[in-house]
Design brief:
The protein has about 220 residues and is mainly alpha-helical. It has one domain: Orthogonal Bundle (Tetracycline Repressor, domain 2). It is about 65% helix and about 0% strand. The chain contains 10 helices and no strands. Helix 1 crosses helix 2. The protein is elongated, with a radius of gyration of 18 Å.
Length: about 220
């Protein structure tokens, strides 16, 4: 599944919001997410803290922006012509791996970001994390053209959420080449789900692209 990686955009095309996020990631890579301070990001970009606050009212908003970027990479991917002829478990495998690959350049930081969220006293961040999981799973379903409804949709969402979280937890600590171990975990889980007979092979309507699906859903 091809994708347009936003973190690879030429510097002159980046918005200030993108530049702030990229600089924060760069500085955190040199130390850790815990040691990252917004005033050092502001100094490096020669901007004020208030300019950062306009886009990121708190440090955790940088984390949300990082995951939003992975969502955009996934949803801007171009669908191949034969996408709907591929079994559903393979379509889901492709979209989930596309999302994980978008995060791969900063895997250690992604792990540290999540650890920060789960610290004692960060209940508000944990609530937002649960909402993020639900939203991402919904985009996985849209990107894979998975259109079950009613009770079947609820069952499917529960199953897909479990598979996603299991794979993500493995991916966070995966040091294998090209995240091979994580991909194997995902492939095994999706095949097992398929064997239950719960997966529909094709949606009733073929969307032109996941990007159009994103636009329609946001209206």
């Amino acid at each position: 599944m091809g994708s347009k990686r936003e973190h690879a955009m030429p510097k002159q095309q980046l918005t200030l919001q993108d530049r702030i996020l990229d600089k924060a990631l760069e500085q955190a890579e040199a130390s850790s997410w815990e040691q990252l301070h917004l005033h050092t990001v502001a100094d490096a970009l020669n901007i004020t803290l208030d300019e950062i606050r306009q886009y990121f009212p708190q440090k955790d908003d940088l984390v949300e922006a990082w995951f939003d970027r992975a969502d955009r990479v996934l949803l801007s991917a171009t669908l191949p012509e034969d996408f709907l002829d591929i079994p559903l478990y393979e379509r889901l495998h492709q979209v989930i791996i596309s999302w994980l690959d978008a995060l791969a350049p900063h895997r250690r930081l992604t792990r540290e970001m999540l650890a920060y969220k789960f610290e004692f006293g960060h209940i508000h961040l944990q609530v937002l994390g649960v909402m993020r999981i639900s939203r991402t799973v919904q985009w996985f379903r849209e990107a894979a053209c998975h259109d079950s409804t009613g009770l079947q949709r609820i069952i499917d969402e529960c199953a897909l959420t479990t598979i996603y979280l299991t794979t993500f937890a493995r991916w966070l600590f995966d040091d294998s080449v090209n995240s091979r171990k994580s991909k194997d975990v995902l492939n095994t889980a999706l095949r097992q789900w398929q064997r239950t007979g719960c997966m529909r092979r094709k949606p009733s309507v073929r969307p032109a692209s996941t990007e159009k699906a994103q636009q329609q859903t946001s209206h």
